């Protein structure tokens, strides 16, 4: 390498599971200005197999040893939700930039401490809310900003599966995961909706949750699970009321008797026009007929790569949008309020 070429940024990955494999490592491998130097897993055999697959130099089981020996510039946190807080805090303390998988943490207190730690360290902390990086999402965000919709007063976010309880990992374990479909898949459409709306200030939250199918069925489109250890909700239905008078309704489920196998989408209804997010379609009514103002034929399937790319470019100093620690905290607060409302069966005020 010539003296003028900067050294590649050193990358470490924590949690050698499927998202680390398919998204983080696969993306980092496409860049010659990054070098994957270490991987850590609580199961050393996972870390070693991952290191072999991706040509990563070293596999670790102890985080402080990794941080001391491998000296990464960037850390991807891909461990189960329960461990995001401790892994992000340790990486920031060691002076690393961090890309953390969603959800940010288990509760708003942790997400807030992570936000403050990133600020104190002067490092980038981004969350992998990748649906906001689809070109569809950006088109709708631009349309909101240019006034195409007038005021949007009703938003419907759907993250529903007919029978799609994850059959791997710890997704049915409340203690390790923090919750079920809301914190796993609903959170994605919640973030995409909030991003398009420009993160309006929230007044209150109400929600109902159900646990009817996960504890009785045991297999579906994503494999098998043990109904005896299923401790998360199957479905949650919530309404977020904004200070501007608008509402965002969120429906999310791992298992619900609906016609479609899976629905991941958001629709927006404004005074002048409405829109569907995936694929982006903006419309209104002219003389009783649907009038299209903008339409993509297919939704952007590169959104996950764009999320990783934005993080790295941000680390390198480009002023590109990321799902940052401030917005991650707002999303974590909304998730907590939705769970609190569904448990107490009462409205939760947020301002
Ligand atoms: N952005 C997305 O669309 C997306 C998709 C999938 C998963 N995720 C998130 O990524 C995270 C991991 O999910 P996954 O599907 O890859 O799970 P996974 O079960 O495939 O992988 C998790 C890995 O972490 C390891 N692990 C467990 N405890 C650990 C600890 N204390 N320290 C280090 N490693 C530990 C496990 O051994 C396993 O190898 C979760 O937070 C999940 O919400 C995000």
TrEMBL record:
Origin, by domain of life? Bacteria
Q: Which organism is it from?
A: Enterobacter sp. (strain 638)
Domain Gfo/Idh/MocA-like oxidoreductase N-terminal per the UniProt entry, residue ranges: 9-128
Q: What is this protein called?
A: Oxidoreductase domain protein
Q: Where is the Gfo/Idh/MocA-like oxidoreductase C-terminal domain?
A: 141-350
Pfam families from the xrefs? GFO_IDH_MocA, GFO_IDH_MocA_C
**Record PANTHER family:** D-GLUCOSIDE 3-DEHYDROGENASE (PTHR43249:SF1), UDP-N-ACETYL-2-AMINO-2-DEOXY-D-GLUCURONATE OXIDASE (PTHR43249)
| GO MF term (any one) | nucleotide binding
């Amino acid at each position: 390498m010539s003296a003028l070429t900067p050294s590649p940024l050193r990358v470490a990955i924590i949690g050698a599971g499927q998202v680390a494999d398919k998204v983080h490592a696969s993306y980092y491998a496409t860049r010659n200005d990054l070098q994957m130097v270490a991987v850590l897993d609580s199961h050393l055999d996972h870390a070693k197999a991952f290191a072999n697959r991706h040509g990563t130099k070293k596999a670790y089981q102890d985080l402080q040893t990794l941080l001391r020996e491998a000296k990464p510039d960037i850390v991807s946190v891909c461990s189960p939700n329960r461990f995001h807080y401790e892994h992000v805090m340790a990486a920031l303390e060691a002076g690393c930039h961090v890309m953390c998988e969603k959800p940010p943490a288990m509760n708003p207190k942790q997400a807030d401490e992570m936000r403050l730690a990133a600020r104190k360290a002067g490092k980038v902390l981004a969350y992998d809310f990748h649906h906001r990086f689809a070109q569809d999402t950006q088109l709708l965000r631009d349309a909101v900003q240019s006034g195409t919709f007038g005021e949007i007063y009703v938003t419907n976010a759907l993250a529903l599966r007919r029978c799609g309880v994850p059959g791997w990992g710890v997704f049915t374990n409340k203690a390790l995961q923090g919750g079920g479909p809301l914190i796993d898949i609903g959170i994605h459409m919640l973030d995409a909706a909030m991003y398009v709306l420009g993160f309006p200030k929230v007044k209150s939250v109400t929600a109902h949750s159900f646990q009817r199918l996960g504890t009785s069925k045991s297999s579906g489109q994503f494999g098998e699970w043990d109904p005896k250890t299923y401790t998360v909700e199957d479905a949650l239905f919530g309404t977020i009321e904004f200070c501007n008078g608008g509402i965002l309704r969120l429906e999310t489920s791992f298992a619900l008797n609906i016609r479609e196998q899976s629905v991941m989408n958001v629709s927006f209804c404004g005074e002048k026009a409405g829109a569907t997010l995936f694929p982006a379609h903006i419309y209104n009514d002219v003389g009783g007929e649907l009038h299209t103002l903008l339409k993509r034929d297919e939704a952007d399937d590169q959104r996950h790569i764009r999320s990783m790319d934005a993080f790295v470019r941000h680390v390198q100093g480009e002023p590109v949008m990321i799902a940052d620690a401030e917005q991650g905290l707002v999303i974590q607060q909304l998730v907590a309020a939705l769970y609190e409302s569904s448990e107490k069966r009462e409205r939760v005020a947020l301002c």
